[in-house]
Amino acid sequence: MPRVAASTAPATQPPSLPGLDPAWSRLVTVPEWSEERTGPTPPVPERRASGAPAVPVGRGTDRAARTWHLLDTAGSLAALGVEPVGTILCVHGNPTWSYLWRSVLRASLETARAGGPAWRVVAVDQLDMGFSERTGVERGLAQRVADLGALTDELGLTGPVVTLGHDWGGVVSLGWAVDHPEVLAAAITCNTAVHQPDDAPIPAPLRLALGPGMLGRATVVTPAFLETTLAIAHPKLERAVADAYRAPYSGAARRGGIGGFVADIPVDADHRSAAELDRIAAGVAALEVPALLLWGPRDPVFLERYLDDLTARLPHADVHRFEGAGHLLPDDADVAGTVLDWLGDRLPDGSVPDDATPGLPSAPDQHADASRPLWSRLDELRDSDDAALVEMAAAGGPRTVSWRLLARRVDEIAAGLADLGVRSGDRVSLLVTPGADLTAVLYACVRIGAVVVVADAGLGLRGLTRAVRGARPAWIIGALPGLGAARALGWPGRRIATVALPASARRALRVEHTLVDVARRGARRLASGATLPAAPDAGAPAAVLFTSGSTGPAKGVVYTHGQLGAVRDVLAAQYDIGVGTGLVAGFAPFALLGPALGARSVAPDMDVTAPRTLTARAVADSVAAADATVVFLSPAALANVVATAPALTDDDHRALGRVRLFLSAGAPVSEPLLAAATALMPNASAHTPYGMTEGLLMTDVDLDGVRSAAASAQEGICVGVPAANVRVRIAPLDADGLPTGALTDEPGVTGEIVVAAPHVRDRYDRLWRTNRTARLGVADPRGHRTGDVGHLDGSGRLWVEGRLQHVLSTADGVVTPVGPEQRIESVSGVGRAGVAGIGPRGTQQVVAVVERSGAGRRSRRPALADPALAAAVRAAAGVPLAAVLTVPVLPTDIRHNSKVDRARLSRWAERVLAGGRMVRP
Questions:
Q1: Of 636, 603, 607, 637, the residue nearest 621 (C-alpha)
Q2: What is the pLDDT of residues 867-902, one digit of tens each?
Q3: CA distances for 675 relative to 356, 586, 702, angstroms
Q4: How confident is the model at residue 315 (pLDDT cuts 50, 70, 90)?
Q5: Which alpha helices (H) appear in 660-811, and where do they start and end?
Q6: How many CA atoms, within 13 angstroms, populate the side-chain half-sphere of residue 300?
């Protein structure tokens, strides 16, 4: 084990630093350990995890009196006259110090001043770190756990205590938690690890620091390790904050603890701290107190495999991944607010309520008919030779798959996967384009209780990488492009290819099996008399479906089997889709639900990552091939279908004339677009459902309803009345544009749209805070805050006025964007419009950004609108405009190519109007 030279120096008070209240800072001396003070074994507690070895720290190690620097809000709370409900014990890692937790101290006091639960926060500087004493003694993990115990004894912490740790300080804090069960109320960690897998190397940055001749130079002689840590903050640290982190480590003599911490990482079983780490890991698995795991996925050291290990040891723990955040999580994200919100829910008065259970309540599944699982139609139709699927992009023309073949294929793949070791609850990422392979694999996984992970290819490689890594699948089943991306970008999971590959390609892509091999394996198993595993319960998770990412990083939406069954049932009831219905699905979720509905499904020939590639001819061909009567398209796809209609032949028109219903959803659909589509499908009823990944059908309106609504002069887009078993209410907006009011169904009240239905998703995956926000103030566990804003009218119709994050708070009041955009789009020469806000909330200025139509569309550069156009837009907008800008194309979301990316527009407009370059947004 590498050794690090260490110096001695007394503890000191820190200088004045940003965000640090001097009143919090104090020095505490822990007296010399002695047998009279601690008993015969200094000062290792006897509270050890069952079966784990006790490590006799103290004998032959550091027994001297030591002085700590720590930050403590006890005095501030006393000045407020507030009695704390408990203590949050914060332990930093390497190479930070107690400054890391300044936001937690500040937020806890703000909560106390506001009348909320008053938590005392004690944030320590570990010995040899921060402004605590430099001891000159190498301190192993067991020593540090004992050090912390001696300090808390000296402080007289009697509980309840919540531990909060980060990095290697997370391990130390969890060691303290294991040793103090009588006062422990909860455990919280940020990016830490208690176990290093034998089959995985330690992370590359640590391998580099531990390399021969590198440890001292990288960690002590130079500040390289410290500077590297500060450099990986997301976003970049302000200079004053970075300098505050540097303050205790101004020279090599003060950086010995940094090197000592790195040297103490157990790289193998022979390391001096390996036994203590094993003891802590075993003890963590036995903890029964509430737990919260907070994670920054961009951490190059504490990789997500360590989060997997912690969730396996603490299956009851709540988890929140801050997408985009990294190693310095308390600086990268709102850890303080999340911790205090979580404590308010889990330990409202410092203790766990008697009726509390870990996690948010799942939506009840009593609505689900357990006798009709998602694959029930496959069982009912398994002797039918009628078409179940039609593949339009197959070589040699359309390929038809019968119900008999599909049911057999699903059984064989299910049996083969089970034989390979895929178990109920295992996550399986499906990187397959819509078609027979994807359908068969999806239903096979669901049948054996595996949880399918479906992320739209439209997310792009970066978005897919975030989604797949975040979902942590055990298996990946993919076509060649998906497997190539998985290999190149290091996505987790064992690989199964949907196509045959040469041996060299299989090795390069780390493919273990092909789908044909899996099916043959399953066929042999079934032929030998084996049966499929027991069907999963209705309340078991069935799928993780990722959102479009149009309003932030894509989120994994967890559905149970019962909830997916409820989605099927509401679609069947609302649109009379069932056995014998031909369904053209230009939207993947509906294509995958076709077999569950008993519908004959066809996915049109198109690039699924670019809905605007769908043509009218492709839709007509699909309708003819499947004898379809129902068509579902995204608004962007529908717009291109209308635009390419002149290419239709007489046969195409006759085929489209057989359609009785077409649906378009995913973004607001205008009356002119619906009318134009109806002209192509003259015998079809045009509907535009309102929904989201979290609930695919909430309300519905037909073309007549859209036309009727257009005459009512309401603000926004009418999306109709609630579907069966759906309840819609509004959380009114306050003057700052925040949904703070009590839920109401009164007409004319603008606010956040809140829905409740049996088919609303169960939860977001590993996003505790997002789950809390989505159900805040919603008593119904099936409820969901949509993030959309709008209002109900006197007829019970819902009007959508935009996204909550796009609401503008101006000096004249709140502005929702859809209404002004619609009015601007009525101006001659304007195609689409986007409304953006610039400036601080409360005094935001409204900017209109428009696409030119007609002759003006020839411009390929953004510009200020000419005076005539600007005047017309200002007159139509209905709200004061600070500026009118024109662009060749408005930025849109990546899945539907339909929703204007207003957040991006706002950033662009603010930059341009501040004198930045006039480049495309």
A1: 603
A2: 999 999 999 999 999 999 999 888 875 444 457 888
A3: 53, 19, 11
A4: very high
A5: 671-680, 703-710, 768-775
A6: 12
Taking Cα atoms as reference points, which of 162, 163, 215, 170 lies closest to residue 190?
Answer: 170
Mean pLDDT over residues 617-629, rounded?
A: 94
DSSP symbols for 542-583? EEEEE---TTSS--EEEEEHHHHHHHHHHHHHHHT--TT-EE
Distance CA 823, CA 876 (A): 6
d(CA 723, CA 573): 9
Burial class (CB within 10 angstroms; exposed 0-12, middle 13-18, buried 19+) of 212 = exposed
Is 258 in contact with 220 (CB distance < 8 Å)? Answer: yes
pTM exceeds 0.70 = yes
Structure tokens at 571: 């679609």
| CB-CB contact of 853 with 892 (8 Å) | no
Question: What's the whole-number average pLDDT of the chain?
Answer: 89
Phi, psi angle pair for 379, to nearest 5°:
-65, -40
pLDDT in tens, 744-755: 999 999 999 999
Domains of the chain, with CATH numbers?
23-346 (3.40.50.1820), 387-560 (3.40.50.980), 694-805 (2.30.38.10), 807-913 (3.30.300.30)
| CA 188 to chain CA centroid, nearest Å | 19
**CB-CB contact of 427 with 441 (8 Å):** no
Residue carrying structure tokens 């999971």: 493
| Mean pLDDT score, 95-103 | 98
At residue 246, the pLDDT reads: 98
d(CA 811, CA 568): 46
Match 């119900």 to its residue by tokens: 403
**What is d(CA 38, CA 40) in angstroms, rounded to the nearest whole number?**
7
More confident residue, 40 or 468: 468
